[in-house]
Design goal:
By secondary structure, this protein is of the alpha/beta class. The chain folds into three domains: 50 residues; 202 residues, Rossmann fold; 185 residues, Nucleotidyltransferase, domain 5, CATH 3.30.420. Helix content is 27%, strand content 19%. Strands 3-4-5-2-6-7-1-9-8 form a nine-stranded mixed beta sheet. The chain is globular. It starts with 31 loop residues before the first helix and ends in a 30-residue tail after the last helix.
């Protein structure tokens, strides 16, 4: 958190001068009626031509569309407010977008000094004129809250006169009776202190410091209100670092890079059954907002601070703090992976290139229960992953038939399948491996010998390196293979073995990827045999690799 960019409160000895800096609905706003009162007060203090007439005109339309009136009122107040009257206002761009967001869950992430924590403090003030408002801001421990509370005292005390702070309880009480509590939640047991409480606004500072989403899921039952005018909202801020970056990225579906989804509304529907048997559906909305120090015009004038961030020797740390880069973080298995180097736009695969597959299959409820990846090798030996198919809860027969349809014109030769799929019973006719073979998809059991996972990871590192002869990495992935790319970017190291990835994290695409690399037929000479189908169903030899 960096609050150096908050302008100091104005001295009353300074001369007042007109400015175009707006008093917006997100800057100590409140209900529409309160904003009218504010405008009237300013008009009385600083009368301008036709000001009172304009305000009375707005009052006539109080029952009409509030958004349109808000816009008119903000334009009016912009003309009235002097620079000395504005304690704080959002920077244009991400900070303003965050304060104007109406989605249920909004994440504000970015690099250092990009204005995230300031915005988190300001966001609840739009509701504090309602006596029923109850807000809660949490961090992992109270020690890290000292700086945040210090700035909150200054902002709330001067911006909303009459606000008091109860030091023992760490609660701000606003003139209306609304409250905003500051608390901690280091372990799941700490949630108990909030059980039985009612909040309609939850803010989480540095949310990636939590290793799991329990911090939201266990607090959700406390998010309720009997006041229909108060929405239930969750707001969070963070740098893209910490043990929880994986689940945070998944919850807000963060897609970083040129084709990212920052500042785009997302909706998810959840269906549940009442005790009566009636089905209900709830739609939740999400938004991820990204910022960098470039979005803070004040800090962009601080050349010394900019130099400090730019000269950090650790590349991962520099990208995190300077750019808020979600594709770079300590503890990642493949920190060298770069979208701009290791991905490309799709192109037609030449017919002469060798093609093969890698498959990790399970009939599972996990996001990707079954994954098939298709590979091609160019004449220089560079591998291309040109297609992915990810699904879940799909029978082996249906999965195989769909994959065969996708590769109908590929002339794909062979592939490796997770060895466990050869022992699991499928939906008919034996194991998944047997079913694939019976349906004409040639697969080989993957190698799971001792040390195989470590060897595969080392091989992937070698493929990600730039070949000095071709000036390309050894493997390039079509940017349409979004699930594989996101997994390679985010998969962490095994905390107990840095030579392997963490198998407890999402690794279905990764496993299919390494199986595909195992099946690379460069050094395998496949021999096909002519045969006639026997009539007595005895085993037959098909080729020298598979053997039956």
């Amino acid at each position: 958190m960096d609050f150096d960019s908050i302008p100091p409160p104005s001295s009353k000895n300074k001369s007042k001068k007109k400015t175009n800096r707006p008093y917006t609905s997100s800057t100590f706003g409140g209900s529409f009626e309160k904003k009218l009162d504010k405008a009237e007060k300013i008009a009385l203090d600083k009368p301008l031509v036709d000001t009172t007439k304009e305000i009375n005109e707005l009052k006539k339309f109080i029952d009409y569309e509030e958004t349109e009136l808000d816009d008119k009122l903000d334009t009016l107040v912009e003309r009235l407010v002097a620079e000395d009257d504005v304690l704080w206002q959002p920077f244009p761009g991400p900070q303003t977008d965050f304060l104007q967001a109406i989605e249920t869950e909004v994440l504000f992430s970015g690099g250092r000094a990009s204005g995230k924590s300031q915005a988190l403090l300001i966001d609840p003030t739009r509701f504090v004129y309602n006596a029923n408002f109850r807000g809660l801001i949490i961090r992992k421990n109270m020690k890290h809250f000292r700086n945040l509370i210090r700035h909150a005292k200054r902002l709330y005390g001067k911006g909303i006169p009459g606000t008091i702070f109860k030091e023992m309880d760490k609660i701000f009480v606003f003139p209306s009776g609304a409250t905003l509590e500051f608390g901690y939640c280091e372990r799941e047991d700490d949630v108990e202190q909030y059980v039985g409480q009612e909040y309609n606004w939850l803010g989480i500072d540095e949310i990636t410091q939590y290793p799991g989403d329990w911090v939201i899921e266990l607090l959700k039952p406390s998010l309720r209100t009997a006041d229909p005018s108060l929405p239930i909202l969750i707001r969070a801020s963070t740098n893209p670092t910490g043990p929880g970056r994986g689940w945070v990225r998944e919850r807000w579906n963060i897609k970083f890079g040129e084709e990212g989804n920052a500042n785009k509304r997302q909706e998810r529907a959840t269906t549940f059954k009442l005790r009566s048997g009636e089905l209900k559906q709830v739609v939740s909305s999400f938004k991820w907002i990204h910022s960098t120090i470039e979005d803070n015009p004040i800090m962009m004038k601080d050349d010394e601070y900019l130099a400090t961030l730019s000269l950090i020797k650790n590349e991962n740390l520099r990208r995190q703090w300077l750019d808020g880069d979600w594709d770079s973080a300590d503890g990642l298995a493949f920190s060298e992976f770069r979208r701009e180097i290791h991905t490309c736009k799709p192109f037609p695969i030449p017919r002469g290139w060798k093609k093969f597959r890698g498959c990790d299959w399970a009939y599972s409820k996990s996001p990707y229960g079954a994954v098939m990846l298709w590979f091609a090798e160019d004449p220089d030996g560079t591998l291309y992953v040109y297609r992915e198919y990810c699904t879940r809860m799909q029978l082996a027969k249906d999965f195989t038939l769909h994959c065969k349809e996708l590769e109908r014109n590929d002339n794909c030769t062979i592939g490796y399948l997770d060895v466990s799929a050869w022992s699991m019973k499928g939906d008919f006719g034996g194991s998944t491996g047997d079913i694939m073979m019976q349906l004409g998809m040639r697969m080989i059991p993957s190698d799971k010998s001792s040390g195989r996972r470590e060897k595969d990871k080392l091989h992937i590192h070698q493929l990600l390196a730039i070949d000095p002869n071709t000036e390309k990495p050894g493997v390039i992935i079509f940017n349409t293979c979004k699930n594989l790319i996101e997994e390679l970017i985010n998969i962490p190291l095994d905390p107990k073995n840095n030579e392997d990835v963490d198998s407890k994290s999402r690794d279905d695409c990764y496993d299919a990827f390494r199986y595909g690399i195992q099946s690379r037929p460069s050094n395998k000479q496949l021999t096909f045999f002519e045969f006639e189908y026997p009539t007595d169903n005895r085993p037959i030899v098909i080729d020298s690799v598979i053997g039956y």
